[in-house]
Amino acid sequence: MAFVDFNGVWLAYNDELLAQGHYAVEDIHLQVDEGEFIAIVGPSGCGKSTFMKLATGLKRPSQGTVIIGGKEVTGPLKITGMAFQAPSLLPWRTTVANVMLPLEIVEPYRSSFKQKKAEYEAKARALLQSVGLGGYEDKFPWQLSGGMQQRASICRALIHEPKMLLLDEPFGALDAFTREELWCTLRDLQAAQKFNVILVTHDLRESVFLADTVYVMSKSPGRMVVRREIDLPRPRDLEITYTPAFTDIVHELRGHIGAMRKQGVEIAQ
Amino acid sequence: MAFVDFNGVWLAYNDELLAQGHYAVEDIHLQVDEGEFIAIVGPSGCGKSTFMKLATGLKRPSQGTVIIGGKEVTGPLKITGMAFQAPSLLPWRTTVANVMLPLEIVEPYRSSFKQKKAEYEAKARALLQSVGLGGYEDKFPWQLSGGMQQRASICRALIHEPKMLLLDEPFGALDAFTREELWCTLRDLQAAQKFNVILVTHDLRESVFLADTVYVMSKSPGRMVVRREIDLPRPRDLEITYTPAFTDIVHELRGHIGAMRKQGVEIAQ
Amino acid sequence: QETAVKFQLDWRFEGPSAFFLLPVAQGQFKAEKLNVTVDAGNGSGNAVNRVASGTYDMGFADLSALMEFHANNPTAPNKPVAVMMVYNNTPAAVFALKKSGIKTPADLAGKKLGAPVFDAGRRAFPIFQKANAIGKVEWVSMDPPLRETMLAKGDVDAITGFYFTSLLNLEARGIKAEDVNVMMYPAHGVKLYGNVIIAGEEFLKKNPEAVKAFLRAFTKGAKEVIANPKAAIAVVKERDGIINADLEERRLKLAIDSSVATTDAKAEGFGDVSKPRLALMASQVADAFQTKGRINPDAVWNGSFLPTAAERNIFAKK
Amino acid sequence: MTRKSLEAWSPWVLLVLILLVWQGICSAFNVSEFIFPSPARIWEQLLEYKAVIAGHAWRTFWVTMAGFAIAIVVGVLLGFLIGSSRMAYTAFYPLMTGFNALPKAAFVPVLVVWFGIGIGPAILTAFLISFFPITVNIATGLATLEPELEDVLRVLGASRWDVLTKVGLPRSMPYFFGSLKVAITLAFVGTTVSEMQASNEGIGYLLVSAGSAMQMGLAFAGLVVVGAMAMAMYEFFSWIEKHTTAWAHRGSQSH
Amino acid sequence: MTRKSLEAWSPWVLLVLILLVWQGICSAFNVSEFIFPSPARIWEQLLEYKAVIAGHAWRTFWVTMAGFAIAIVVGVLLGFLIGSSRMAYTAFYPLMTGFNALPKAAFVPVLVVWFGIGIGPAILTAFLISFFPITVNIATGLATLEPELEDVLRVLGASRWDVLTKVGLPRSMPYFFGSLKVAITLAFVGTTVSEMQASNEGIGYLLVSAGSAMQMGLAFAGLVVVGAMAMAMYEFFSWIEKHTTAWAHRGSQSH
Ligand SMILES: Nc1ncnc2c1ncn2[C@@H]1O[C@H](COP(=O)(O)OP(=O)(O)OP(=O)(O)O)[C@@H](O)[C@H]1O
Ligand SMILES: Nc1ncnc2c1ncn2[C@@H]1O[C@H](COP(=O)(O)OP(=O)(O)OP(=O)(O)O)[C@@H](O)[C@H]1O
Ligand SMILES: Cc1ncc(C[n+]2csc(CCO)c2C)c(N)n1
Ligand SMILES: [Mg+2]
Ligand SMILES: [Mg+2]
């Protein structure tokens, strides 16, 4: 059975919209296997963030079911980690204290937090080291550059060893060069720990470089219109993005979206 | 003679920094011909925006001279139009009123603004129409999406028919699809009106697609380290970005930057 | 063991407050096993109010204010009662500048008079008006310390106020006493009583001995004050460092001469009242203040706590 | 729907609740009027003296408005002066804070000496107490002007004056309107305090005169009336704020 | 360098300038002390009565601090209550505005009836006048919490209480400290106003007592002292604000 299972999921943001039949996402069917890395691309406002809220349990579907790890989702899940488009670090906490935040909330860490604080802190520092933030652990978020903040945010999403990592455009605000560095960091972390990843992005190259499967969403009401498996061999090097094979996939996806934009019609899955 | 001529330009932001020898940009030499479209790429903080401030006259060089249109720049120039990374529209003015702003400031429009208001308004509306904002002229900026605002911002930079358009990462905040649409809009406007463009960007594909010449800047102190003429034929279609010739140039520029980042050494121009 | 007595003055620490501060400082209250604390006040009305609410055990207030309270709050529990007369003649007076041409009360008709709304002289003015057949006057309201300034500046034609307060305040504003025409109420047919010592009903019931002791000690203190005003002012100065000792000494002497050691007081006996005069005042106040009900003088006054006449015989014979 | 209307009614519900508790305590402990009047008693007095109260309220109202009008003019000008230069801002700000911390009631006697009893001191006290937030807000609005907005004009070679009128002025409008609603409530306090010390009319006069006649119910009725007037004006200016500077409130949220 | 130090000195320069002009006017027109005392006269009186003034100032100071401490406790709790729920916010806000628009001076007589002359009414008036900005700021800080910061915790299954203590509380600290400096100046006004009506001590008593004795120089010296104390406390709290919530001020600017 799939690890994540969206079964005919519809969501309207409130009762009024529901009554009018304005759904943010419609009829989502999607299965993700354990350890799979999927990416979701689509134009602005198509419902990508909405999809993420459903996957984390921040929102309950108006219709249909979301099953994760064999259980129906009814509220925020502790087995997920999430990083948002903005790093959303708490500015009054140091970087390492920010990363340790989930351990203060999520069981089993929570109840042993006071006793094992030193141990947990060591763990957080090691994780920060692994994304190249060694030496910045005791700085405040606003003393770091945007890219560094984003890395810390990803560490925070991973510290409690979630089975699933949800990333909503985590690299959107970064410059191209920093972004590519973080792609490699994420690729290596996932290769090492084998957690599930759902990545929402605008950037087709990013989705193709990182994901096992790319889903394309259509604009409101949001539906999954294309599913494309990426059969590029792993481990993938950044150089791969300049190969014709890579460019072709990106071009193909670009075509789907262009068609959607121009005609506004849906393309069969 | 070149239309824009940077001759050994250095800039330190204030007297203290000057005394300490901390320059934001160092020893910039650069010539731009009339009607040429140049792009400047480089990592964050390398001094791209500083370069723009020098080109508009918002900042005076600490050393060296900036000559534009044959005259040394000593203060803000009325022959330039500028669009910033953020659209920076005035939220209390409608879109068309925002676009007309330069006409209230710059001569010869200023003195005839009251009499010829209707004429100028028609001109602004036509310009907005040409970038696909027909029907949104009387909306307020905050009623438009980010991409629409950016288009309006570019219109504002063009309304007084400047000889030179300065764009500081105007597409940075947009999603990939909207961004590509605006590339085409800008390409067509420049092809039609033949003004000079200096475009600052993070996105190598953007710079290669749009510019005649790409300059790569090194990180602090900012210097121009690479100059690359783009010999792709014009008019260029979006499809060109998926050709190997295009990808190769991007890859080559990527290599320069990567080398700079890794070793921190300067590459001879 | 000592009985604590919280005492509320009618006004700030000025010369006349020596009557209460001196026995505290010199131990007359201590000797009677009383622990008296004296607080400054901001008007007789407020003093009556605070004793009535039980915040203070005893106080010093204008008798007409007390009468008004009784008439307007017939059902209030713990109504204060006057237990000793201090200002046998009301210090209320009308002041006009000589240069204004106002010489007699009758000249006040149609003139502009200034005073706070709660001023005893202003509230009792209808009685004064009737006694002297004065026509209608116009009132301007202001905070107490402003009225003398307004008179000095000529914004009002006359003011009402306590004789010893306004006269000295006018002097502080550069108006000499000889340039002021003072019409004291008692000299113009208005023989109202002035300030009395009041005590709450409940306090009287619970501590009748303490009240008696208080009045005894007060009487001893008053004798000292009258005999030696300069020393009395030194006590006040200790309590409030900013007062001008010379000025307050004069104020105290004026108060003693015009309101405490008067011919009427000598006749009725220090601290006591004359029943007919009290009854007359009760009916006059009820009319002038337009109270809700009539005023029963026996409910307002209780002379049974007074020291003996011998003890109260403090006025030096001259 | 229900939730929304419940929210709209909630202040009234709370008000009624508070009144009930207050009345309950007054009745249960038989608190006499001169200690703390009960709502019922205040209401009674309000009805009994409604004509008198209305007259005083009207006086307080227009005097407040006059002082407030001066506060707007002076506050805006001073705010512009202070906000348009960094130096002026650092120089004036601490002194203005010190001035703002003085009890304005203490100035009334001085004002009375200058202007006599009547509307003069009341108008000026209302002005003195309420211009400060206006000035501070205008100055802050100008001082926190985003440099990007300014650059938009500077790039075009605009003069300082152009920048001030085309960007500074409109940009500080939301701050201005935001300050008005605060300032108007202060202006009412100023008028009332001044009237308490020197006036023959107005709610402040009523408070003192009712207080000295032991009509605490009437005094509290007067208080209720100023509070209500101030609240109404607050709501009025907050309505104006919403409708004139909608852009400032919707700035962040896209449609 | 010179420009910077000039800026640091500018408030003092301005102060001296104002004093000179004031003195000049007083001397030139020979304004008598009881109309408006000159700075020289105020200074003279300040020196003459320095011991007395110091005593009154100390009383006013600690009474204000006591009232302010209560205002902090009550203001914060109420702010939390109001800010943590939308409904509470809409219900309480208008009533609090109305209450804030009442002249607190009018409550002093009532407070005296309850607590007697002395520190009671002064502490309570200081509290009543200064808790409002604290409450409003805390409530606003909580009400404007960015949903993203909240979601960071909600995603982890955090309880409402977790969200309040881990995000709400620290997030509202800059608002809290920002309000303290405003509230402290109001607290001084409250104490002084109350002392003017009901006290044997304190700067407020000094004002009234000196005012009625026509020692206007002394009264103004008292005013200057409250103003100075309030300004000092303002600077103190604004220093605390800068040093405890540095993150809020550097948030935007990267280095
Ligand atoms: N809180 C909300 N209440 C009502 N409608 C909402 C809400 N949030 C989003 N929507 C609507 O739901 C739709 C999908 O929004 P969503 O944020 O999921 O888009 P997105 O794909 O994440 O866009 P972007 O790429 O800009 O982040 C949009 O039409 C949006 O207007
Ligand atoms: N106003 C300023 N005062 C002092 N230093 C400044 C100022 N603005 C920029 N700098 C410094 O000058 C250098 C160049 O900054 P600049 O803004 O030109 O970079 P940039 O290339 O535009 O970066 P980005 O891609 O992030 O926009 C940086 O080191 C920056 O810290
Ligand atoms: C020494 C002295 N001076 C003036 C007054 C004036 N005054 C202030 S309040 C009040 C009583 C009103 O009910 C009066 C007459 C006083 N009492 N004692
Ligand atoms: Mg989104
Ligand atoms: Mg830049």
TrEMBL record, chains A, B:
InterPro entries: AAA+_ATPase, ABC_transporter-like_ATP-bd, ABC_transporter-like_CS, ABC_transporter_ATP-bind, P-loop_NTPase. The keyword Transport applies. Residues 4-244 form the ABC transporter domain. Keywords: ATP-binding, Cell membrane, Membrane, Nucleotide-binding, Transport. It comes from the Bacteria. The keyword Transport applies. Belongs to the ABC transporter superfamily. This is ABC transporter ATP-binding protein. It comes from Ideonella alba.
Automatic annotation (TrEMBL), chains D, E:
Residues 57-237 form the ABC transmembrane type-1 domain. It is a multi-pass membrane protein. SUPFAM superfamilies: MetI-like. One of its GO terms (cellular component) is plasma membrane. Gene3D superfamilies: MetI-like. Keywords: Cell membrane, Membrane, Transmembrane, Transmembrane helix, Transport. The keyword Cell membrane applies. CDD domains: TM_PBP2. The keyword Metal-binding does not apply. Belongs to the binding-protein-dependent transport system permease family. This is ABC transporter permease. It comes from Ideonella alba. The lineage of its organism: Bacteria, Pseudomonadati, Pseudomonadota, Betaproteobacteria, Burkholderiales.
